[in-house]
Design a protein that fits this description.
The protein is an all-alpha fold. It contains 5 helices and no strands. Helix 3 runs antiparallel to helix 4 and helix 3 runs parallel beside helix 5.
Length: 102
């Protein structure tokens, strides 16, 4: 809803301090409502905020939770997007032969 939109808009404007509490509120609301798909989306966006803020460990944790939640929701397309972001942060973690070129 509106909270998620405002959080995403703040992120896109580069205002991570404003976007973080809005998207954390969104995550809490979606968990309360039981919307697995929306929870996965919120976790992925929180991962993007953590990544942009340089909080790599937090981003990894959030992306991995988002991946698991997208799988639970039966949404492979959403999981693929999050996996691409995770691998972009640490391509070796994916054990992809193309990422090991030297």
């Amino acid at each position: 809803g509106t909270v998620r939109f405002l959080g995403q808009l703040s992120f896109l404007e580069g205002d991570y301090d404003a976007s973080l509490p809005l998207l954390e509120e969104c995550l809490a609301l979606e968990r309360e409502l039981g919307s697995v798909q929306r929870v996965a989306e919120a976790l992925g966006f929180l991962g993007r905020i953590a990544e942009a803020a340089g909080r790599t460990a937090d981003a990894h944790t959030l992306y991995r939770e988002s991946l698991a939640t997208f799988a639970e929701a039966g949404n492979p397309a959403g999981a693929d997007d999050v996996l691409r972001r995770l691998l972009a942060m640490d391509p070796v973690a994916g054990n992809e032969p193309t990422t090991r070129r030297r």
